[in-house]
Design brief:
Elements (H helix, E strand, L loop, with lengths): L1 E8 L5 E7 L13 E4 L39 H7 L5 H18 L15 H17 L7 H18 L8 H15 L3 E2 L13 H7 L1 E2 L1 H18 L6 E4 L9 E4 L6 H6 L5 H16 L13 H10 L22 H15 L11 H14 L4 H12 L3 H17 L6 H34 L6 H10 L4
Parallel strand pairs: 4-5
Antiparallel strand pairs: 1-2, 2-3, 6-7
Helix pairs in contact: 2-3, 3-4, 3-12, 4-7, 7-9, 9-12, 10-13, 10-15, 12-13, 13-14, 14-15
Pfam family, one: Transglut_core2
InterPro entries: SirB1_N
Protein name: Protein SirB1 N-terminal domain-containing protein
């Protein structure tokens, strides 16, 4: 049962309903026990409600979960933000739903508890849906990215290898893999690039790597393992492989024929590229490339989160009293680059631009972070997503995610390094600012409601709160 309790109006005038999920409600990031959440749905006056729902296996128990479970405790907001800006998100939502479907296979796989590539998971499709959604977010094309065409290209590569490059009488899996190495990195001339956050985003998109034959090691590992999977499904070979990470920044991911582990200890000691790890690697790089508040010239001082938190704590945000204009006003002691980053982030969230990412891209940063949250990649993704929501003016969900991160952090051993201490202090300041903003808005709502005679009449108060911004 879902009961809408009240409607909160954020600084943009978007209604953010809160909801209670009672016992037995099973959905995206909720346990079977009772919990309170901010629903990933919105409603504008006179506009049909739009939301995306994903059903994924979750861990059991109460409260927030800090393990590897799929986790989105307070909803996901990017697509609804764009819907309310009048942008068609049909293709983006379809790509996200397909991505979530692949994650469902990942979490329910027989290899879910091991460091092995699951051959029930269409890892190539999952990576292509990342490309498809990001393309839809910025191109606004009426035609979706042809995911199946790129999968056909992968099948054509497997057919070409089986027809012309497979040894006539392979003596062992190693001889087949040696021929596949020569095919991929010799005949087809695939090359690896760096795994740096300052790299080219095209190196992390599966379709572009297939076209350009130049990509991140994680994408190359996916292509390699998927070729082997296709050949195995055709009966051309009778073995499967695991992928081992590159040894350095110049080497390639290496395949090894899969062997049954002799013991649990041996299984745990294997250093393998897992499906989840490959997706996390790709999405983390994309998030860092598109993050609107970046370190200047690769400086070792600070972190991307700290830059975003500093921008928030110095007043570059949307306050409840000045929803939009305050984004363009900042105290005199704030660096111009921070103001420019804030403006660019807002502009790209509303319009989306496929240009230089020197000022980041809020849409694709949100998209990458939401996928990392769905993957349960790291509890810090809750924190980073909460910070992005703060800069979008979604203060209640932002507070929910930042509090969820703090709860998870308290359950684990606290880090004592200097950077972690700086980030923790900045986060506390953001939380204080959020509580003040929310309290200010509620006082303002109560004051206006009192003046209009709405206090004491729950139905009129609810109607007032849902239409406050739109008159």
């Amino acid at each position: 049962m879902v009961a809408v309790q009240a409607a909160n109006i954020n600084a943009y005038g978007w209604q953010i309903p809160t909801c209670s999920f009672k016992h037995g409600q099973r959905g995206l990031g909720f346990s079977s026990a009772e919990s309170t959440c901010y629903a990933p749905t919105y409603r504008l006056k006179g506009r049909k409600q739009s939301s995306i729902h994903a059903q994924l296996p979750t861990s059991h128990g109460s409260g927030h979960h800090c393990d590897d479970a799929v986790l989105a405790p307070h909803g996901l907001f990017l697509h609804d933000l764009m819907d309310q800006a009048g942008i068609d998100t049909g293709h983006a939502k379809a790509a996200r739903e397909s991505f979530v479907k692949q994650l469902t296979q990942l979490t329910s796989s027989e290899y879910g508890k091991h460091n092995r590539v699951s051959y029930t998971l269409d890892l190539a499709r999952a990576a292509l849906e990342v490309s498809s959604e990001d393309d839809a977010l910025v191109s606004h094309s009426p035609v979706a990215l042809p995911v199946d065409s790129y999968l056909d290209r992968l099948n054509s590569m497997a057919m070409e290898f089986a027809s012309h490059h497979l040894p006539s009488h392979p003596s062992s899996p190693d001889s087949v893999l040696s021929s596949l190495d020569n095919y991929m990195y010799g005949y087809k001339s695939f090359q690896r690039t760096s795994s740096s956050a300052n790299g080219d985003a095209r190196d992390c998109y599966f379709n572009m790597v297939l076209t350009r034959r130049l990509g991140n090691p994680a994408i190359l590992a996916i292509i390699y393992s998927e070729l082997v999977k296709i050949l195995k499904s055709w009966g051309v070979i009778d073995f499967v492989v695991d992928m081992i990470p590159p040894e350095d920044k110049f080497s390639l991911p290496r395949p090894v024929p899969r062997k049954p582990p002799q013991s649990t200890l041996e299984e745990a000691s294997l250093q393998l590229l897992t499906p989840k790890g490959l997706l996390v690697e790709i999405l983390t790089i994309l998030k860092n490339i598109y993050w609107p508040w970046k370190l200047i010239n690769g400086s070792a001082e600070g972190s991307n989160f700290l830059k975003a938190a500093d921008a928030a704590n110095h007043g570059i945000h949307m306050s409840s009293s000045a929803p939009v204009e305050s984004l363009f006003a900042a105290p005199s002691n704030i660096m111009g680059s921070q103001v420019a980053s804030a403006r660019a982030a807002k502009h790209r969230l509303q319009r989306g631009i496929w240009t230089s990412t020197s000022f980041g891209d809020m849409r694709r940063a949100l998209a990458a972070t939401e996928r990392l949250v769905l993957l349960g990649a790291d509890r810090k993704e809750l924190r980073d997503y909460g910070m992005l929501l703060y800069h979008c003016g979604l203060f209640e969900p932002s507070l929910g995610y930042l509090n969820a991160y703090n709860e998870c952090k308290e359950e684990s051993a606290a880090s004592s390094d200097l950077m972690s201490s700086k980030e923790a202090a900045a986060l506390e300041n953001v939380l204080l600012r959020l509580r003040l903003i929310i309290a200010e808005r509620r006082l303002l709502e109560r004051k206006v409601a009192t003046e209009d005679g709405l206090v004491g009449n729950p139905s009129k108060t609810f109607e007032f709160r849902t239409t406050l911004t739109f008159g």
